[in-house]
Each structure stands twice: as structure tokens, then as C-alpha cells.
Predict the structure.
Amino acid sequence: MSLGGIAFGVGFFIVTLAQVSGFEEFFIQTILGTDGAVRIEDRFQSTLASVRSNSPFADNRSQRKYIEGVENPDEIIEALTAVPNVAGTSVVLKDSASIDSPLRSSRIQVYGIIASDHIGVSQLEGQIRMGSIQRFQETPTGIIIGAKVADRIKAHVGDSVIIRVGDQQNRYRVSGIFETGVSDIDKVRVFMHLGQARSLFKKPHGVSFIQVSLFDRDRAREDAETIENITSHIASAWQDREKSWLEVFRAFKITGSIMVSTIILISGLGMFNTLAMIVMEKTREIAILRSMGYTRQDISNVFLWQGAVVLVVGTILGFLLGAAITYGISSVPLRIRGIFSTDNFVVNWSIMHYVYAGVTASIIVMLSSLLPARRAARLVPGDVIRGTSS
């Protein structure tokens, strides 16, 4: 029973971590493929109050003066060559508008982009469900609209729509419909060519932000700080933009691990109870072994080796069970739309999941074996024979 409990505990421990970390990884990939690893936005200037504050512990961010947007994007992009981790950049001109079709209208956020640059820092090309990025590039007045926008205004690829900004309006052709799976994005975002966006919003210079992709996404915070120092513009890392969701996944991972660990713990308690009963029932045999010359360490090793055998065999069986279940659930249908888009369970294969499961099982099993082993080692042969052992 202890062996079976260890195997099931280790197996489900691995499966739980594989699921939670799989969905977390998929969410991160969605965010990086949609909004980039770092976003460079408003320029800031130090005020007199921040200059006077020379303390290294002072937070001067609240004393900065901010100027909206990026006025000289070409200079910023040139300065980013000093950051070796930067993989690509894309300028974006963003503003609010409304989109009208013959059947309905909807509020949207227009993103003016250079297509060739933007597909290098995002997964836009792979997110297009109907139409294509080539069609968008070949159509000067083409736009790519979110799936929920298309559903709301009943628009299809090839349809003509009108985008309004105040008293300004232009007609555009739907070249593609994309879906990120992030509801807040798919229901408002529309991409158009940067030149068309400048004409629509009457902004011939500057952009709203620069989207940056990195070779090593885990260095985003360090690189964002470096970019701020170089460019004097706000640079926000993806970890800070999505901090709340990352904390949710972390809480799920910890909670799931604790819940599944109870299976191993209960199995460990069962093993402790079994070995303790063996010690109580085999006191005479233990006394005979001691009388034959066995040391306390020899007696202790008898019980420790029993625990070690159960641990090794149970862990191996648990690894096999965990791998089999993880593989099985990866093909289970599960439609999710909200913070990302997937049609089946997402799992993450990582050797560390097996390491964590093995370490957890080792600690619990060896502690369960150690106490009965020490009790057996303390038995005195003479006391056992006289019947005074306790």
C-alpha cells in the first residue's frame, strides 16, 4: 500500500505541475507574441524635485514629468543596438476610433504598424485565422481586425468598412481576421498600415510606443531598466505588465503541489505505521541479531533499506505513471477562450517536475523510515529477553 501510494503521489505530483506550468507557459507565449517582451512608451524628464533628491533609496518616478508617446522612434531604435538582448523592434501608432459596417458599428483601438517589422516581434502572422499577412501587405488600405470585432460588425475578409475618428473617416478593406484568444484584445484591436494610421489620426510624426522582442525573455526587467537609462523613455517588461496573472499561476502551482503532496504524505504515514509495528513485533528477532554481533547501525540499516527500496521502486513507477498521464491528457479536448486560446489541455514537459516529485517523496519516505529505524537500533538485547524493553 505504501509503495502504491508513493507511485500515485509522485505520478499525480508530476501531472499537476505539468498542467499548471503548461498553461502558464502558454499564457506567457501568448503575451509575448501579442504585446512583446518590452514596451517603450512615454518620454520622461527629471524635475527639480527629483534632481534635489540624491538619496539612492528615493523613488524619483513619481517626481518625473512625462511627455506622451515616442517623438523620435528612429533614434530610439538606433540606441537599442547597444542592448545585445534585443531581437527586434516595431513602431506602433495607437488611438481609439469606431468601425462601421453596413450592419453595425463598434468601438476599436487602431494599431498602425509596419507589417514586416511587426511580424518579427509578434505572432500576428500565425494568429490570422482568415486572410493572410501577404494580402494585408499588398493592400494599401487593408486592415486586420480581431475575431470578436469581426463577429460584432458581421465583417468578413474582403468586406469594405469605414473607420471614423471624430469628423474624419476613411474606407478600408478587411485583409485578415486574427484571434489571440485574449478576449480584451480580440474585441477591440485593429491593425492598419502606419502611413494610413498617420493620415487617419493626423499624426505625421512620432508613434505611441515601440514593441521590443528579446532573445532571452527572462532578462526583460534588467533590459527594461537599461533601456530606460539609455533612452529616457518608460520601458515596461512583460513580467510587470502581467504581474497579477503570473501571481495567479504561481498560487495555483503551489496549491496544487501541496494538495498532491498529501498523497505522498499519507503513504509515508502508512509506511511509518507499518515499520513501527514490525519493530514492536520483531523485538525478539532484533535482540537475537544484536546478540550475534549486529551493531545498532546494522539494525537501523535494515529498516532504512526497506524504506529506500519502497522509495526507489515507488518513484520509478511514479515517473512512468506521471509521464503516461501527462501524455494522455495533452490530447484531451478543452476549449478555452479568455486569457489565451486553446482547444486542448496544455502541458509542459520539464525534467524539474520529476526532480521536485522525487525530492518530495525522498524527504517524506526517509523521515517515515528513520524514526522506526532509530527505535529498533535503541533496543537492548538484555531488556528484550527480560521483557523490560519499551
